[in-house]
Design a protein that fits this description.
This protein is mainly alpha-helical. The protein has 2 domains: 2-113; 121-245, Serine Threonine Protein Phosphatase 5, Tetratricopeptide repeat, CATH 1.25.40. The protein has 10 helices and no strands. It has helices at 2-37, 42-80, 84-113, 120-132, 136-147, 155-168, 172-184, 192-205, 209-222, 227-245. It is rod-shaped, with a radius of gyration of 32 Å.
Length: 250
């Protein structure tokens, strides 16, 4: 009676594992069909589909690990069993479970292979969207992810807007680091006057007046006709006015 119950239990386990693989495959097929039928928000749909596939991968991995644990239990039972007939039955069940485990491993590899690598451009676009919406913390994460990619065609844009994000978060030292890369690296960038102004404003916010004045002067000398250059001139004149008014009268 006990032998029959064990046999039934192991057979149910085998059917459950195989059924789980088939069920996951059917779910993935349904998600793929739904993805093709949807027309709006392509990038959002892609992200959701990727998350769904990743969820399936995680579930398969979890089931695969549980199956491995069950195999170990059966193998231990086999070593402890003395009856030849029972040992033979256990060996058959172990072989069946190993076969099911191999099928699940193949399904797992197939699902993992269907998940495309994330597109870094999506991170930049999401960061810009968050920045414009005032979600600065989220924007900072997205710009940082994009800038970690070696070949980004929006690298200057992402660098500038991450500097703007740092500035908006009042993390002025980090903003200076990002904005300073424009005069150091991107000498002909359209962002250069804006970056110089933000460096000067960041130093001013930190109370570093001499550094701030040096950047205002550089900005005015190089780009006097730009809006940023005109702002720098006003800052310089205001500083000179304060300096004169601060002198003691003879």
């Amino acid at each position: 009676m006990i032998r029959r119950m064990k046999k039934q239990t192991k057979f149910v386990l085998f059917l459950t594992c195989v059924g789980f693989v088939l069920f996951q495959s059917a779910c993935l097929k349904t998600r793929a069909q739904l993805k093709e039928e949807e027309d709006s928000s392509r990038s959002e749909q892609t992200s959701k589909a990727d998350l769904s596939r990743q969820s399936a991968v995680d579930e398969l991995k979890s089931e695969f690990n549980r199956m491995g644990s069950r195999l170990e239990e059966l193998e231990r039972a086999q070593h402890n069993e003395r009856d030849t007939e029972k040992m033979k039955k256990l060996e058959e069940r172990i072989q069946e479970l190993e076969a099911a485990q191999m099928k699940m491993l193949e399904a797992l590899k197939k699902v993992e292979g269907s998940i495309p690598p994330p597109d870094p451009v999506d991170s930049y676009k999401k960061g810009l969207e968050d920045f414009k919406a005032g979600r600065l913390d989220e924007a900072l994460k997205q710009f940082t992810v994009y800038l970690a990619h070696p070949d980004g065609k929006y690298k200057q844009d992402a660098l500038f807007y991450r500097g703007e994000t740092y500035f908006g978060l009042k993390q002025y030292k980090k903003a200076i680091v990002d904005f300073s890369k424009f005069p150091e690296t991107y000498h002909s960038s359209d962002y250069l006057p804006k970056a110089l102004l933000k460096v000067a404003l960041s130093f001013e916010a930190l109370g570093m007046k001499d550094d701030s004045a040096a950047f205002y002067q550089e900005l005015f000398d190089k780009y006097p006709k730009t809006p940023e250059g005109k702002t720098a001139r006003q800052k310089i004149l205001a500083s000179q006015g304060k300096s004169k008014s601060g002198k003691k009268q003879p």
